[in-house]
Structure formats: C-alpha cells, structure tokens
C-alpha cells in the first residue's frame, strides 16, 4: 500500500525520515505527524521552531502549532503558547475535544501544565544572543526588527489511506507579544481531507492568511488537479493579485500531498522541502518560482547542505 510524507524546509528532513519508518511499519499518519514535528521542535539549531526558536520583542518564545486528522476533520491548535516542550503534542491532544480545541496565550500554557505536558524554558542561550544582537541593531542602525518566520509544516499519508497535517513555529522574530500568523489557522496554514489530500504553508503569516491557500490547494486537488498543478494554480495568481491590491507581498511557500502519494510545491522564494514515499526514500529538494507561474524543483546539492550546516551552527558575534 502507498504511504508518503512531505515537509517544509530542510529542517523537516530528519523528523520526516524518522516518521517514515512508522508509516512503513503500518503506523498511522496522525502518529507520523507528531513524531516528525517533535523532532524539529526539539532541535535547538532550527531557530524558527520550538526549542531554540527566536523570541518576540520582549525576549519570550511564543509558539503556534496545529494538528488536523484528515479522516475526521478533528483540529487542535495553540497560539502564543510558552514554556512547553512540544506544542504539536498539545495541539494533537486538543484535537480530541469538540469544545475548546483552539487555545491561545496563557490559556494554552495552563492547559499544557494541567494536562502533564513537559514544561521547558524554550529560550536557548544562542537564541537569546540573536535576540540581543537584533535589539542592538534596531537601536543603533534603525533596522526593521522583523527577520525570520519559517514554519515546519507536514502532511502524511498512511497505508490505510488516512491522512494528517501539522504545523509548528515560533513565529515572526521580534513580533509584538500576542502576534499570531497563519500557522495555527485552519484553511490558511494547513488543511487535510483524507478523501483528497492535504497542504500546509510557510512564510509571512500576515499575507498568507489573506488567501486561505492551504484549503484552496486541497479544493483544487479535489476537482481533479495534481498536487503540483493545484499548488501552481492556487499560489501564483494569488501572489499577483495581492501585489496588485495590497501593493506588496511577503514570502509564500506551500506544499501538498494527495491521497495517492503524489506531492507538489509552489513558492515565490528559494524554498527547500523534504519528501518521500513507499517507492522513494526521503530526499531534500530545492524549489524556485519558474516561468509562466510554474515551479522549478531540483534535488539539493551537497555543497548547499554543507553550507547550511555551517550557517545554522555559526558562532554568534
């Protein structure tokens, strides 16, 4: 039977690879999503998700996460949660509740504490140094405070044709306390229907939430389009429309997976992602916007990977 998984950014690769062994053994897509995203949340050098994530303007790591079961449409989400080790696990548990399934701020953090989720100070020394450096740059050079907003998003398909999706992020670096982007919002940051497929988004949440693009991609797949055609048709015309109407547009990248294990990607920036299925071991790819509202996708180079590892672990001046 077919199984598959796709995740945003280079940072998805290790978690996705680990979760694929669960799918290979006949495990559920819901478990695979949590396994994969927890791996990303726990790695301190991925500075836009979980432990080591970049803080808000006051130096606090506020995180957003969401989980969706494509079989039942059950959704759980948290926004502005802090001092909790794995927000994706909290979001998944909340998806079991018909009421109170989307919690924010102190309410989300208290729920996690009262329900036995592991508490942790998510601000690492490295992330604090990056924050202090940015504060100094703002004060001395009058630079924009905002730099970095990458979400890890995953979509999975298991051997029983069950699908799930999840997202996790520490959000926009130096954001105002309480700011939330698209990642925890159904239809915008994520959406999945096991009868069709799923999609997740990463980029500037304030602009992504203007389009509800994850739902639109799933809708287009449901009309018969391939995941790649659905991504291209949903993303690129909306980017142009937003430029025309709003005057500017932030970074957009979306991934999709259908219930046949086929995937697609669309982006308006250089964008890495990881994907694998029952016929192909997980790999990392590079996507770029191509001509005529298409996407160019190539395997990542070894040189790029080496440079990436150096960059994320470079000492902070």
From TrEMBL:
Cleavage, annotated site positions: 150-151
InterPro entries: Ntn_hydrolases_N (IPR029055), Peptidase_T2 (IPR000246)
CDD domains tied to this protein: Glycosylasparaginase
Enzyme Commission code: 3.5.1.1
Keyword Hydrolase on entry: yes
Chain positions recorded as substrate binding sites: 179-182, 202-205
Active site: 151
MF GO annotations: asparaginase activity
Entry's Gene Ontology cellular component terms: cytoplasm
Database matches in Gene3D superfamilies: (Glycosyl)asparaginase
Keywords recorded for this protein, A-Z: Hydrolase
Keyword Methyltransferase belongs to the record: no
Domain of life: Bacteria
Protein name per UniProt: L-asparaginase
């Amino acid at each position: 039977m077919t199984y598959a998984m796709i995740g945003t950014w280079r940072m998805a690769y290790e978690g996705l690879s680990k979760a694929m062994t669960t799918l290979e053994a006949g495990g559920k897509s819901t478990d695979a999503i949590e396994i994969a995203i927890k791996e990303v949340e726990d790695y301190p050098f991925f500075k836009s998700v979980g432990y080591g994530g970049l803080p808000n303007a006051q130096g606090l790591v506020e995180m957003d996460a969401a989980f969706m079961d494509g079989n039942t449409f059950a959704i759980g989400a948290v926004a502005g949660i802090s001092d909790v080790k794995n927000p994706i696990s909290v979001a998944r548990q909340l998806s079991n509740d018909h009421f109170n399934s989307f919690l924010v701020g102190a309410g989300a953090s208290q729920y996690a504490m009262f329900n036995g989720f592991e508490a942790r100070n998510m601000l690492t020394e490295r992330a604090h140094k990056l924050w202090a450096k940015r504060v100094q740059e703002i004060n001395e050079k009058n630079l924009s405070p905002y730099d970095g907003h990458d979400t890890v998003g995953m979509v999975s398909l298991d051997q029983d044709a069950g699908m799930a999706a999840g997202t996790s992020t520490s959000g926009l670096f130096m954001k105002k306390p309480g700011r939330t982007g698209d990642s925890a919002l159904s239809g915008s940051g994520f959406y999945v229907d096991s009868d069709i497929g799923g999609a997740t988004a990463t980029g500037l949440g304030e602009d992504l939430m203007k389009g509800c693009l994850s739902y639109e991609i799933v809708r287009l797949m449901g009309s018969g389009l391939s995941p790649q055609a659905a991504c291209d048709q949903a993303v690129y015309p909306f980017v142009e429309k937003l430029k025309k109407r709003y005057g500017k547009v932030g970074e957009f990248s979306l991934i999709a997976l259908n219930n046949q294990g086929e995937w697609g990607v669309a982006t308006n920036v250089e964008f890495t992602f990881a994907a694998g299925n029952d016929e192909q071991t997980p790999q990392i790819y590079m996507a770029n916007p191509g001509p005529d509202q298409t996407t160019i996708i190539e395997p990542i180079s070894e040189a790029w990977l080496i440079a990436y590892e150096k960059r994320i672990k470079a000492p902070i001046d």
